[in-house]
Design brief:
CATH class of the largest domain: Alpha Beta
CATH architecture of the largest domain: Roll
Helix content: 40-55%
Structural class: alpha+beta
Largest sheet: 4 strands, antiparallel
Shape: elongated
Number of domains: 3
Distance between the termini: 76 Å
Strand content: 5-15%
């Protein structure tokens, strides 16, 4: 009875792959490279440290030491990659907008340099300059009650709503569901429901039911249970957020400086191929 595929060694399964013959060929090329003459027209110089690094990363990913066969396989994959890169460069495939975009993005990461941290003075200055960004809008805790029916409610239910009784009491009179919506602001209610309903909710006092808002789920009523006025938090409350935003702004500013230096380093010549034909 053949051994189940999932239990077969990795190398045996890989050896059956159609591309495995190419990998083996690459491995032979790699082995032959060390014996070849340096006078050959095309010489691909490979660094053993790069191969060792690939093997190390593979072992870190699997948590196990690779066998010699697996190490040879990783080496073959590295040789294949380098051969393909060399051929791509020879064919001019690097002259591609998508490749240029990836290289440009990587260069931006290189130019951004080391991770920077603000001083206390810089943090305070950034907070003061962007203080409106950190204002916390007025919000409230509410209970959402959804009656299953979109038809007008009975006088009894409307009467209980007027008294500000609990959602549990109301659900005994008409089927539906309820749940809390903590710390929601005007924009939250506007986005979930509508601006008109948000006006109604934020005009309600604690304990008062606002509604209805009719949807395909039924009709929604919101009861305010707590009100929190708008406020400006102290820097200590939002320090982590301010620090991250300072770092982003500072890195962007430094990056623009480095990019400007690149423009100073190179002479930019733009030619019009259409005009040059006339």
């Amino acid at each position: 009875m053949p051994e189940p595929q999932s239990l077969q060694p990795l190398w045996q399964r890989l050896s059956r792959e159609p591309t495995m013959h190419f990998f083996l060929l690459a491995l032979l090329i790699f082995a032959a490279y060390g014996l070849s003459s340096v006078s050959q027209e095309n010489v691909l110089e490979l660094d053993q440290r790069e191969i060792d690094a690939r093997i190390f990363m593979q072992e870190m990913a699997t948590g196990e030491e690779l066998t010699q066969e697996q190490r040879d396989f990783v080496a073959a994959r590295y040789v294949e990659e380098q051969l393909l890169v060399q051929e791509a460069l020879a064919l001019g495939l690097d002259n591609d907008a998508r490749i240029h975009d990836m290289l440009a993005q990587k260069m931006l990461h290189v130019l951004s340099g080391e991770i920077i941290q603000p001083s206390e003075e810089e943090l305070q200055s950034f907070y003061d300059a962007n203080i409106d960004r950190y204002r916390i809008p007025a919000s409230r805790d509410v209970i959402e009650l959804v009656f299953d029916s979109r038809e007008p409610l009975s006088d009894e239910v409307l009467s209980v709503l007027e008294t500000g009784d609990s959602a549990e009491t109301l659900l005994e009179l008409s089927p539906g569901s309820s749940g809390p919506l903590p710390n929601i602001n005007y924009l939250d209610v506007s986005n979930i429901f509508s601006e008109e309903f948000a006006d109604q909710v934020f005009a309600a006092a604690v304990g008062e039911w606002a509604g209805p808002f009719v949807s395909n789920r039924g009709q929604h009523w919101l009861q305010t249970t707590a009100i929190y006025p708008a406020r400006l938090p102290e820097l200590s409350e939002v320090q982590d957020r301010v620090r991250l935003e300072w770092i982003n702004a500072e890195e962007e500013a430094r990056l623009q400086v480095e990019v400007s230096r690149l423009f100073d380093k190179y002479s930019i010549v733009i030619t019009d191929s259409a005009e040059s034909e006339h």
